[in-house]
Amino acid sequence: MVRTALVGLAASTLFSAAHASRTYVYVSNADSQDISAYSLDDASGALSPIQTLNVGGTAMPLALSPNHHRLYVGLRSKPYRAATLAINPLDGHLLPLGDASLPESMAYISTDATGRYLLAASYGGNMLSLSRIDANGIAQAAQQTVPTGPMAHSIRTAPDNQYAFASVLGADAWLRLKLDTERGMLVEDAAPAYSLPAKSGPRHFVFSNNGRFVYLIDELDGKLHVLTFNPSMDKAKPIQTLSILPSDFDKQGKPWGADVHQTPDGKFVYISERTSSTLGGYRVDASTGKLTRFGTWPTEKQPRGFGIDPSGRYLFAVGQLSDHLTVYRIDAKTGALTAVTRVATGKNPNWVESVNFE
C-alpha cells in the first residue's frame, strides 16, 4: 500500500523562505531514523543545517530521481518500505509524499534513467526488486522480485538504460539483467556479467561518466576492480585490480571496503575503507580507464558512505561511529582532499546525496 500525503496545500505553507545556497546535501541516519538536510556554501564549503526530518524507520540507502525533485529513502526496519520525499528547489527542505512497501530490508536503491522505476537490492533477503514510480514521482509497492545468490548489495542501470547490473557479495558475482521498461520487468542473464575470485565480496560500483568503464569495490578482500564496458553491447571485461588499503594497514584487521564514486569531470575516483577509516584517491587515465592511486586521507570513523557534489568541488564523508560529516575540497588539478568543515549528523549516518538547482 502507498500512503500519500496531501499535496494540494499552498506552497507557501509547505516550505520556508528561499535559502542563499542552491546546493543541498542530505544524509540518512539509521539509528535516529531521520534525514539531515544542509545547504552548501559553494565558495567556502561550509554546511548550514536546514532540516532534520524523521522518517519513522531505519533510514539507510538514498536515491535521487533523475530530475532531482524527489529523494527516495530505503527504510530497513519493519515494515520495510521506500519513502518518497519532495525536494524544494528554493530552500532544500524535504516534504514527505508517501511510502510504499518493499519485500525485504534493502541495502541499496536506485532509479532507472527515465525515473519510472525504483530498483533495490536486499542483502539479507538475497533478492532484487522493481517498483513503479508514478507520474508524481512517488514510488509504488514493489511489483517484482528476482532471487539472487546470497547478499545482493547494489543495483544500477547502465547508461543506455537497457540493462541493470547488480553486485552479489556472497556469490562473488556481478549480474546483468535486461530492463523491460514497457512491462516493468527485470530478466536476469543465465551467466554473471563478471565472476570475481572467491570471497571477494563485490559491493558498490559506478559507471564512468563516458560510459566506457566500471569501477567496482569489494567489501571483503580490499580490492577495487576496473572493467571496460562496451556501451553498444552492455558487456564488460576486467582490465585492472588495485588495493583500497592504506600502506600501513597490515596490523589494523580485516579489509572492509564500502563505497566508490567518480568526480563529474571523470578525472578522479575515490573509495572509502571502514576498518582504517580512510578515503583513497585514484587518478583516471582518460584513454584506458585505468587507475593510479595518489592519496590516502583519514576521515570520519567507519565511513560507510560518502558523496561528491554535482560541481565536483567537494566530497562529503560521514562516519557511522562518529555521527559527523566532514566536507573536503577537491583540488581540481591534483585531486587532493583538504578538510574544510565538519558538522554533526544524526545517529549512525551512512548515506550522502547532494543536488544543485541553477
TrEMBL record:
SUPFAM superfamilies: Nitrous oxide reductase, N-terminal domain, Thermostable phytase (3-phytase)
GO molecular function, one term: 6-phosphogluconolactonase activity
Origin superkingdom: Bacteria
Annotated signal sequence range: 1-20
Protein name from the UniProt record: 6-phosphogluconolactonase
Alphabetically ordered keywords of this record: Carbohydrate metabolism, Glucose metabolism, Signal
Lineage, highest ranks first: Bacteria, Pseudomonadati, Pseudomonadota, Betaproteobacteria, Burkholderiales
Any one Pfam family match given in the protein's UniProt record, by short name: Lactonase
Family statement drawn from the similarity comment of this UniProt entry: Belongs to the cycloisomerase 2 family.
GO terms, biological process: glucose metabolic process
Keyword Protease: no
GO cellular component: cytosol
InterPro entries, per the entry: Cycloisomerase_2, Lactonase_7-beta_prop, N2O_reductase_N, WD40/YVTN_repeat-like_dom_sf
